[in-house]
Amino acid sequence: MKLVLDHIGIAVEDIEKALAFYRDSLGLDVEAPEEVPTERVRARLIDVGGPALELLEATASDSAIATYIAKRGPGIHHITLRVPDLHVALFELRQRGVRLVNSEPRPGAGGSLVAFIHPSATHGVLVELKQCPEDLTLDVKTLPFGNLQLTVLYDGPFRLDGGAMFGVVPRQMWEKLAPPDERNRIQLAMRPLLVDAAWGRMIIDCGAGDKMSEKQVDIYALDRRRALNRALTIAGVSEASIDFALATHLHFDHFGGATIRDNDVLRPRFSRARYLIREAEWEDATHPHERNRASYLQEDFVPLKDAGVVDFFADDGVIKPGVRVERTGGHTGQHQIVYLESGGRTAVFVADLIPTTAHLQDPWIMGYDLFPMDTLAFKKRFIREAIEREYLIFFEHDPKVAAGYIREKNGKRFVEQVL
Ligand SMILES: [Zn+2]
């Protein structure tokens, strides 16, 4: 477990009065105020070079800060250690028998996740563990959905050119939603979805996998420390327990993880699985042209057919009870989305039809799409339907939002985040 001191929390009775000392007398820089309604506190972070100081004032009499001050007076309240993955950290601490105040992460300031370790375990210091928002994509979460159980997996972050991700939309407009790095790339995630049902276990897409060259790892900013095997471990799922792997399309960031290189031999990754692939997508992928060659890497899928584990299908329809595919075209000629239907509810794994929550507006379509007008037509119809019928949408590439409901208010679309 790698821990870094993030900040020291100081409980004060009145933030403004405390600032008269920290800001005015000491001359320190103070960040904008922030309220954390769940904790019923108001906070101001003070920059002291390394880890920050955090002034905390209660906003309600039942706030932990109010209780602390009533009991012990103002002063140092907690220290906060940053962890790369709070779920993993809490899992490990539970296993080591450490007493926790919060056994599950809870929302903290600035979009972070936090949890407290009990002072009885830390020799008298209240220790807060914190995972920063940029690391939140690490979450592996399970959601019961009628007769199905849906688990959002994670095959790590990657980056793609921001311009290519938004097509004709000017950078001025998209950079607010998706800030580019110095190489003009925006942060994305790869999130396959696991479906558990009476008929077995299915993974929908499986990330980029681990066959990429050093150069590709650099171009796409892949971070393979946080890859699918780790997510499956967190989910308690073995690779051998997967019965079906369904492809939305065969681009490397969706189905690269279907094969692995094992002592220079390429083989299917999930030893027991049947691989479910749309036949016409297979034809396109195995006959690439100049425009899509960089996305269709033959080693990702040809070894599957060689091993005799592919089940091809030709048309839209129900693949397994509760799992239905529909061709959208657009992104690739045969790109398809997956409907998960159970208990009168519908969830949709939309793959590259709506890659992130920044792509909710109809014309915000990727420059990568081979047939953008097909994307537009399908997307217009689909988003309307998704809003009206309250589909739970799984966003495969969004760096922060794994799933949510698309809403519309005064003509503006937004996502109500669920996972
Ligand atoms: Zn993609």
Architecture overview:
It is a single chain. The longest helix is centred in the C-terminal third of the chain and has 17 residues, at 372-388. By secondary structure, the protein is of the alpha+beta class. Strands 1, 2, 3, 4, 5, 6, 7, 8 and 9 form a nine-stranded mixed sheet that branches. Strands 10-11-14-15-16-19-20 form a seven-stranded mixed sheet. A hairpin with a 2-residue loop joins strand 14 and strand 15. The protein contains eleven helices and 27 strands.
Strand content: 25-35%
Task: Specify the number of helices.
Answer: 11
CA gyration radius, whole angstroms = 24 Å
Q: What gap, in angstroms, lies between the N and C termini?
A: 25 Å
From the spread of the alpha carbons, the general shape counts as globular
**Unreliable stretches covering 5 or more consecutive residues:** none
Helix content: 10-25%
Q: Determine the mean pLDDT.
A: 93
How many strands, what sense, and barrel or not for the largest sheet? Answer: 9 strands, mixed
Give the assembly state of these chains. Answer: single chain
Assign the structural class, choosing from mainly alpha, mainly beta, alpha/beta, alpha+beta, or little secondary structure: alpha+beta
Number of strands: 27
Q: Which distinct ligands sit in these coordinates? A: zinc ion
